[in-house]
Amino acid sequence: MDRVIFDSTHRITQGYGNGHRGVDLGWRSDEAQNNVYANCPGTVYATLDGVEPGSEYGGGWGNYVLVRHDNGMFSRYAHLRSGLPVSNGQRVDENTILGIIGESGRAYGRHLHFEVQMNS
User: Fold this and answer.
1) Are 94 and 41 in contact (CB under 8 A)?
2) DSSP characters over 65-108
3) Which of 9, 20, 42, 63 has its CA 20 to 30 Å from the CA of residue 120?
4) Across the chain, what does the average pLDDT equal?
5) Residue 8 and residue 70: Cα distance in Å, rounded?
6) In angstroms, rounded to a whole number, what is the distance separating the alpha carbons of residues 114 and 28?
7) Contact at 8 Å (CB) between 22 and 61?
8) Contact, 28 vs 34, CB < 8 A?
9) Residue 62 DSSP label
10) H or E segment at 64?
């Protein structure tokens, strides 16, 4: 996960399990450490932008980026700030900023929800 955000190992606020299908990673006061990167090469499969905190729109994910990776797996980066710098169909890799940790959608505090899944 250290590819996704800086120093991710020390930022886990909720782990995988008990109905939670991903890992939540906390924000830092140094905004440069809140950039979110693709964990490996792929293509942006779906995005949702402009969702406010507390909104259930889009399933509660808030602003998110869903990437389809070259191996067929998908990764989701949710609760991002508005103003996503990527768009559907865009090729991304470990150096591509997908967004900034936020608290959009059904988030309780500012964090990134990161998950890997088989299907979109």
Assistant:
1) yes
2) EEEEETTS-EEEEEEEPSS-S--TT-EE-TT-EEEEBB--BS-S
3) 9
4) 88
5) 23
6) 16
7) no
8) yes
9) -
10) strand 63-69
* ∠ CA 90-110-10, rounded to 5°: 90
Instruction: Encode pLDDT of 40-72 as tens digits.
Output: 999 999 999 999 999 998 889 999 999 999 999
Rg from Cα positions in the chain: 13
Say which amino acid occupies 77: Y
Identity of the residue numbered 53: P
- What pLDDT, on a 0 to 100 scale, did the predictor assign at position 23? 82
Q: Which amino acid is at 84?
A: L
Q: Which residue has the higher pLDDT, 10 or 45?
A: 45
Dist CA 7 CA 39 (whole Å):
13
Per-residue pLDDT tens over the stretch 89-105: 999 999 999 999 999 99
| pTM score of the predicted model | 0.89
CA 2 to CA 24: how far, in whole Å? Answer: 13
On the 0-12 / 13-18 / 19+ scale of CB atoms within 10 A, 98 is: buried
Instruction: Please compute the mean of the pLDDT values over residues 16-43 and round it to a whole number.
Output: 86
